[in-house]
Amino acid sequence: MRGFVLFAQLTADGRSGLRACFLLFRLTPMGYPRKNRQIAGDSGKIYREKGPIMQIRPTGTPITASQRRGYRDTPDSRFYQNYQSAYQALNTASAAAPAANPSASAPPAKAASLEAILGVTHTELSALRGVSTHTQATYAGVLNKAYSSGGISQARQFLQSLSADELEAVRQNHCLADPIDPTQLSEEGAQNLLLPEGYSVDLNHDGVDEVGAARTMHFPPRDAPVGFKEAWFQATANMDDGEMMTYSLTMHGAVYGLQIDGQSVGSNYPVQEIDSYRRIVSNFLAALEQQKAFLAEGQYARDKRFFSELQALLA
Q1: CB under 8 Å to 217, separation ≥6 — which residues?
Q2: How far apart are CA 136 and CA 173, in angstroms?
Q3: 26-40, 85-99, 161-175 — which is least confidently predicted?
Q4: What's the pTM value of the predicted model, to 2 decimals?
Q5: Tally of structural domains, the chain
């Protein structure tokens, strides 16, 4: 069974805006009954207990597609040069293809080329959102122009130099509902429009990434300890997009507090300290016991199972 998600977000002026991010996912309950469950003990061995099977992700292995779509990394010092090199190499190959094979009427498959340039997270999300390969290719060219001209360091000014078609490609690739007005954007919002999905910057370190006028969240935090990230990716390895969003938003709110009028309100834990996440998980487990009688059917068992798993991995 499939469905879609439409994210409601606040724009810079406080009104409710829409970032029309359509994600296909299976509409299944978070927990479903199975006879036995496999869990990795401290020794790495597998033992069983009652409940659904937990898929343990071997340490250091690539994260899943659902995990990738919910996580953002900060581009490192090599990112921009590597991007330009990949863009140039693939465009050179595409231009040479007809000469090498006169019968060829088109360059190599665009989907594969775009993935090599923009990354798998970006092209996966573009496919889910229905963004054409032509529009992705236009966006890839915009990024190459920004990186080669230094436009990323003056993102708002660079966006103002783009044509209407280029701005529209940027809008579609970042799944924004409204046309982009560069003069109304923060520098963070402008810079993130010039990064493919899977990457972002959080210039004010508030845990919210501005992408154009949209305010977006991801989890785990980019500054979280490696130990927590590994535990999180292990605990969520068998989740679909719906489950991933639910627990990610729950944890994000606990770490950063609520966002009201662009300001964090409530608890704010140091994101770099693993003890922050241990305390949060412990607090969730205590709250589950206190609120058990008021929870929807199945929620106590489902959440108890997940947070207990995460707690064990963080021990």
Answers
A1: 207, 208, 209, 248, 249, 252
A2: 7
A3: 26-40
A4: 0.76
A5: 2
